[in-house]
Specification:
- By secondary structure, the protein is α+β, with helices and mostly antiparallel strands.
- Helices cover 22% and strands 21% of the residues.
- It has one domain: 2-Layer Sandwich (Alpha-Beta Plaits).
- 10% of the residues are buried.
């Protein structure tokens, strides 16, 4: 399930007990400005980030359980990866 709609200050506060939070950003719908229900927290120390993930994943916040995981880098296909390419 997604992150309940709330402000970044409150969201950041969930992670601070586990270490340094370098950045915090909720993803907003570009047309409405309303939260899409997810965001990103950046923690510079891997050990602190892992502890936060372990302790916060599945935590009930409001009426929802949050899912906390490592961000995956988005992979985009290059021209040579497109089916039918002769290159």
């Amino acid at each position: 399930t997604g992150v309940p709609e709330c402000c970044e200050v409150a969201w950041r506060a969930w992670f601070v007990p586990f270490g340094t939070v370098q950045s915090c950003s909720l993803v907003l719908d570009k047309d409405t400005g309303i939260s899409k229900g997810f965001g990103f927290i950046e923690m510079p120390k891997i050990g602190e980030a892992k502890t936060a993930m372990k302790n916060l994943n599945g935590k009930e916040v409001g009426s929802s359980k949050i899912r906390v995981k490592k961000a995956e880098q988005k992979v985009t296909a290059s021209k040579s990866d497109v089916a039918g390419s002769d290159e």
